[in-house]
Amino acid sequence: MERVSTALGMPTVLPPGRPVGARPDGLADQFGRRATDLRLSLTDKCNLRCSYCMPADGLAWLKRERLLSADEIARLVRIGVDELGVRELRLTGGEPLVRADLVDIVARLRAAHPDLPISLTTNGVGLAGKAKALAEAGLTRLNVSMDTLHPGTFAELTRRPFLDQVLAGIEAADAAGLRPLKINAVLMRGVNDAHAAELLGWCLDRGHELRFIEQMPLDADHGWTRDGMVTAAETRALLGSDFALSADPRERDGAPAERFEVRRHGSPVLLGTVGIIASVTEPFCADCRRTRITAEGKVMSCLFSRTEVDLLGLLRSGAADSDVAARWRAAMWAKPKAHGMGHPGLGDADFVQPDRSMSAIGG
What we know:
Blueprint: E1 3-7, E2 10-14, E3 27-28, E4 34-35, E5 37-41, H1 70-84, E6 88-92, H2 102-112, E7 118-122, H3 131-137, E8 141-145, H4 151-158, H5 163-175, E9 182-185, H6 196-206, E10 209-213, H7 232-239, E11 243-247, E12 258-264, E13 272-277, E14 290-293, E15 298-300, E16 309-310, H8 312-316, H9 321-333, H10 358-361
Parallel strand pairs: 5-6, 5-14, 6-7, 7-8, 8-9, 9-10, 10-13
Antiparallel strand pairs: 1-2, 3-4, 11-12, 12-13, 14-15, 15-16
Helix pairs in contact: 1-2, 1-9, 2-3
């Protein structure tokens, strides 16, 4: 079995025979964290070409036989829940809606785990035709990525003219009872940053929870720059033109988003909340509770990790659940203390962008 350790804050594979620090008590790491939130990618394919994620011409997709099958997905989730303490599941991509057996996968997971929160992150293209079926299959809730309400800006960011489909999908999901619906937005300087307050107002009017996500260095073109991204502080300032933000008194409890209560200036009326995920400028690594599995069955202990630990090979070699769990534990035991950006003592010089884009990792 491959063995994993941490060197200079990043996980590396150790040769056979060296001791592994993994413990048999869930997905713990060396820094006292325990992963209970599983992000599992169903596919690397996507029908958009967002400039902060994918190149205009797309990427070379994985062949079907390299993807986790429905049986393998069900087995990994069972191992995670029953043996490793996973308490929440998010299905991601790529774009999970392009997977033909998505509804069947959700129904199967729900039948096996009646009380497990199961959420889905989607770009919303095609959601209108599947929202009701997903709700009936047992999906708990949805996150829909939508960066603007303006068709021209949407087409510029995604390189596809599908805003009407996304809006229809959001409406269908709301009607199907998949609430509260969360909207994910990435602000790009000079493109949609001026639309931040407008998008928040739209979400508040409809009871949706908006999450602004700092642009991360996970674009396939490797064109990200710190100076070019819109920071969390800038996002708060942009929203402040129309709204008064105050800290949400609820405990963050490991959530990636810092939440703020939203009111109109001078009004005591609470309109709702907004979240800001500041992975770059205000990182939350010390309380990270996530473990990720890519569409081809590899564990990534950190979204920015350059090390991946294969589980699919074990699944297909006839290994026992205990062997799969042990390798998964070892991968998470090697989780780095921090990804490097924004941390005292770990400057940008210590950070190396992963080869994979976000679509190939699974958010």
